[in-house]
Amino acid sequence: MDPRDPRLPHPQANQPGPQTGRLERAPTIGPGHSFGSITDKISTIVLTRKTSGGWFIGFGIAFAMMMMMLYAIGWLLIKGVGIWGNNNPVGWAFDIINFVWWIGIGHAGTLISAILLLLRQSWRTSINRFAEAMTLFAVACAGLFPLLHVGRPWFAYWLLPYPNTMSLWPQFRSPLMWDVFAVATYATVSLLFWYIGLVPDFATLRDRAKSRPWKILYGFFSLGWRGSAKHWYRYESAYLLLAGLATPLVLSVHTIVSFDFATSVIPGWHTTFFPPYFVAGAIYAGFAMVLTLAIPVRKAFGLQDFITMRHLENMGKVMLTTGLIVGYAYVMEVFYSWYSGNIYEMYVMFNRAFGPYWWTYWLLIVCNIVAPQALWFKKVRTSPLILFVIAMFVNVGMWLERFVIIVVSLHRDFLPSSWGMYSPTRWDFMLFFGTIGLFLTLLFLFIRFLPMISIFEMRTLLPEAQVHED
Amino acid sequence: MTTGRRHLDLAAFGARLSGENAPEYWRALEELAEDPSLHEVLREELARESAATGEGVDRRDFLRLMGASVAMGGLAACTPPAETIVPWVDAPEQLVPGRPLFYASAMELDGVGAGVLVESHMGRPTKIEGNPDHPGSLGATDHFAQASILSLYDPERSGTVRYTGDVSTWAAFVSALQATLQTLRGSGGEGLRVLTEGMSSPTAGSQMREILQRYPAAAWHTWQPVTRDSVLEGSRLAFGRPLQTVRHFGGADVVLALDSDFLAREPGFVRYTRDFMDRRRVRAGAATMNRLYVAESMPTPTGTMADHRVAIPAGEIETLARAIAGEIGVGTRVDAGARSAWAEAVARDLRAHPGRSIVLAGENQPPAVHAIVHAINAALGNAGRTVHYIEPVEANPVNQGESMRRLATDMRAGRVRALLILGGNPAFTAPADLEFARAMDFVPFRVHLGTYYDETSARSHWHVPATHFLEAWSDTRACDGTVSIVQPLIRPLYNGASVHEILAALNEDIRTGHEIVRDFWRERARTGADFDATWNRWLHDGVIPDSALPPVSAPASGAIPAAAPRGAAGIEVVLRPDPMIHDGRFANNSWLQELPKPVTKLTWDNAALMSPATASVLKVANGDVIEIEAGGRTVQAPVWSVPAHADDSITLDYGYGALRTGEVGRGTGTDVYPFRTLAGGDIVRGVTVRKTGRRVRLATVQMHHELAWELADGAGARRNIVRSGTLDRYRENPEFLRVPGLEIKGGPSLYPEWPYETYAWGMVIDTNVCTGCGICTIACQAENSIPVVGKEQVLVGREMHWIRTDHYYKGDPNDPDIGMYNVPIPCMHCENAPCEPVCPVEATSHSDEGINEMTYNRCVGTRYCANNCPYKVRRFNFLSYADFETESYKAMRNPDVTVRSRGVMEKCTYCIQRINEHRIEAEKDGRRIRDGEFTTACAQACPTRAIRFGDLNDSDSDVARLRAEPLNYGMLTELNTQPRTSYLGALKNPNPELARRAAPASSTEPAE
Amino acid sequence: MQVFHRSANTLSRFSIFGAVFLVAFALWFVYQLNRSPFATGQRDVVTQPVPFSHEHHVSGLGIDCRYCHTSVETSSFAGIPPTATCMNCHKQIWTGAAMLEPVRASLREGEPIRWQRVHRLPEFVHFNHGIHIQKGIGCVSCHGRVDQMPLVWQEKPLSMSWCLECHRAPEEFVRPRDKVFDMTWEPEDQDEIGPRLVRDYGIRSKTNCSICHY
Predict the structure, then answer these.
(1) Which chain C residues have a beta carbon less than 8 Å from that of B53?
(2) Least buried of B250, B310, B515, B744, by fewest C-beta within 10 Å?
(3) Band (B995; pLDDT cuts 50, 70, 90)
């Protein structure tokens, strides 16, 4: 298979290679690599290199957490949502917080793959596969909650519009209804996008796999890829098409999720700027999670050459930007509540900052606004450790943001007589950490059995892969 | 709902009792209970939550078909299980399957009867309403009557005669009793003692007199924990003999209540509060109100209605009373200290309304205060006008404390050979210093007739289960003496005996309870031959006409007893019956246990109630358990601070802490009876308080401590939830409570307006006459089969009540005259309901009559609607709260309402089942539903008629007119919800003299 | 270096398209199943303790529905006759019939006859016979030709969509009040009388949830 096939509309076509002399830009791939070395390095992780003890330990822990999740779900189905801390007035709590949190995390993948692809950001190449996988797993986790948070999950299918003997349709005015479609579409497209991207590498693995069963397995998924020019041509157009499809979804999903709150009447929810605010927050969270995962993996598998400093730095920059947008939103929330002159709006902000849950609000400010300011400094952006710590801050911060929006708004709304307090039960935590377990389990399986970095796309980054239009 | 009332003809009735129907059903039920396959399937069903509402057995038909039992057969796969229909063998007349019947009866509590109408579905009583023809009810009920239906079906009621704890039989008991009587007969009944509760049944009275004739040496003792001894002694002081006061609030312009909760607790309050409130309904063109002065320690519903209120320790009420009396010219002038200004102003106001005022004192105030009150009423010329006196309605009007003391001493001295305790639980409730329980051991033959196998039963040789008032014949007198026949609606579920039957056994009288009561009245009915017709009319009407006791002319001796030396100063403890479980007899009634107590909004517990100031002096916080000590007696109770409570005073509710009630009541609250002595009385002064360091979580449904502060800075006012002002401001401008821009008819909406061609149901709640008693809540609970959730669930805020009464304070919590307001909150049935568009499955929707419907079987339980409801009236079944197992509760529930399973949202439906029923009836006769033809459960039970319900399309309807009142306002209308439930603002009628205190009243006026 | 034989291509292509049809078929199957008598329990004959034949009593003897189902006009529940009703006639005729022994036994021992329920509605559905009769909905419309059923079976699906057919368009089913209990009546021209009767009887097409669910 010849990536230099002139008919290939390479996304990186006019990407300046090192030899163009513009060297101030850090390379997106370490020096001294050839097609072979790249293929070896990545594929061996999957194929030949024997599984490390670290992997088993990590996987074991993740798997145990996932089992805990299944236990929590089982008990939930037996007893009902009453085992959680949800109450009146706080009808939604951990369930929806986690849903929004995971969905948010699930944004980076498609963004990196699709949008950066369209924007021809070559540096995306080494992290996109990884991010896409993460997206899928995050969406899988997110998808659990809308299903589990309802009182009678066995009737959840009533949310789907289908011809039934009750001759009833769902309520199309309800944002939850829209969620069903938004999330489902997003999950489907992300899956396709990820899989299509994998096809050529499946072929590579098929070719390099030693044992027959693996050959068959990888062969099955590679859909008989032979790397002919025709294949490459179809592949690229399909990939571009999907990228185009996925791009609006990145915006739509979280926009619609934000409608769950924006369309309500609850002070603290009833806000027009939620859609952009949520999308920015999602990308913010997404990149934070990519960093959280990329930095250790990069270290563990010695991929410093592929996931270079430049990648980390760029992601840091994206986080800084989106972080600032989110910060702007926080400021605006306060301003609006004052500007509205509406006593309920004003009280909500007052209650967030000085009410019984004041600490969540200030912790959120620290995590999401203060901590990331360090990213202004190149030193910070280029230090994996500090980046990792900041990313962690943001992960926590984004979860707290949803807590503040959902719980703190609900627990004191209009009638002081109905105000209440919320405190999570152990089942809330078990389910939350359980989903993290699910996420990590899938991730461990992914890095073990699939090329976590797109082999062929990496190869296109090599100087000799560059097409020169001069 | 008197429309459905049938008079009950004897034939059918005889049939009922002689066992065609009731036993028919019960036999069927027992078969069911013993049929293991049923339980098998039941469990299976419940596990699968098969039916959308998860109930395994189809309860509605189960109830609907007389004598029907529903057996679940076959494998319950995807189709509902097979059912059998069991018709009559021989159907009784006038009973249409599927249609309820209403029977008049009466419920007696503490010797005072309240008339009720009992709704009966196929022979099973399911709901209790007030009897409009009964002077003590006028169509409303108290919460005890509403809850009594639950007690009837309580599976934990005692079910068998027991001898020293072992199961025995009625026959065995009777022979044992006869044997004992034989030994006593020689000595003329020497040593035979009968201890009854206070009761007004004329039949029982005459039975007792017969017994006393037969056994001259026997004695009749009476004890009820909520004793009215001091009232009795007070009238002795004033008139030289025990008399009972009947009040006519209709004619009273000024009322002074001295530590008396006459609007929500004391006998006859259902009637009195109605009369009183009729003078407070400010309507366009009728801007007059009576004026209420209240002096009390613990804020009561009466206190929340006060135009002027002083919070003073109960022990200082007497001084205040003397001071006021002195000002009026009764007795000598006394200095009321800090309150003398108040006393003078009140006295002047009273003097200004001679013959048009009422002064009354609370039951646990000492006799002297009552004597003073009588003297004042006499001096003001109220006697004969606004108050008159009758002979006591009690059959045995004795000083119960003394009666008990005598009994206890005789028991110890071995002078009591046979003791029959008919009703009550004296071993638990008797004054602590008598050590009654221990004294019982000295009696060789002890019998206890009781509803539960309780402390007293355990100390008796014989325990006989007592019947519920819906199970046995009797009669009783209302607060004015009017007699009602108590007619049963169902055979005894737990084969108990009534007081009459026991007394009959004592008399060697073999008649049934029915015959005893009927014969007694046959003699007295002046009709002679056609007694049957008369009797049936009495049964149908629920009252015996003109049987009220005649007024007696009793000149009060103006003399006032000299002031007794005041007890030790310092902190006092006031003992009063619990507002909900009363003296403890309702401890096993979960509805009452979970019904939030007025003002404190506590559930499932009693507490040491004190003012925030006192709490901070004692350095205790809510939930801290303190030990209170006085005269060597101690009691431990958790603290709950109540704004507007008098300082240096602690209120303790007795009735809690019984160890031998059923599972429901066991372990709830703390027993404070050990602190209640004859010597000490109900007001114990000079107690010492010690912190134990233990803490208890108290379940309240409203975060008061928070609220007080929240409202202190006027947030409540700015939210315009509570709107109140003064009568004068109203006179200046009737619309002064309107807020520009906050009209109910809201702003524009993207959706088209709903057309309402037929009916437009609406509700108006008059906050000016709402005492916050909570009767609406429990009536709703009974009508709509609302489950109880238990203390733990209330603690996490998951109570299920569809209508709640919010209690708001206004102003500084330390202000003694702090404003208190009660706002009942059902579903608002908004025109633009925020809950409707957010439900993804359209489980909540808008009907063409403006009802915000909740379709349980469509609900998947996203809780989005509850989140989006600004009024937070939606209730979610977080767990499986409804009791699907207990057979007897299936029989109790309203067959016209679906029982909700877990995971389903529910809320106020404006009693849609009643609307549908009457729409169908009206449609059948091709007419519209008439205004007042029916109403919601809450409105029907409300003693003050604060809640009105009806058709807004009918411009003449009560509710339509109220909605047009200038005081009418909607809650949170700025959200353009356009609520169907609207409110009338609260007005105070302050005494200009005390204007300073009136001032804060304006602070809940809407903020412009 | 392929792992699979060339034929795999055809196979894969086929399976990809095949899957689509498979899913479509599955959906269609479920859809049909839910409406089939298997799910609704239509037309399966329920055996009763006494093999009471409506066919015989109604078309044979011409007994009116209301003779036994007394409360059908006044109550939500049509009413199942007490044993006494049966015996009104059967103490004269067929007095010895073995078939009727359970009935006589019931009267003798005061033990009710336990009939098997045929028309079952879920617990959360409230149906009122009285109003439907009053508004001119014939017995036949919901119960079918009971006069031709030796043992009664459930004729109609009794599903919500089936209820709504009529509630959304009553004019298509309403009949003159005097024909309500008529098993054989057929409209000459429903399009003509339907709208008229809807007007005369003041029928409003009631489709609020709370009409049946509360």
Answers:
(1) 123-124
(2) B250
(3) low
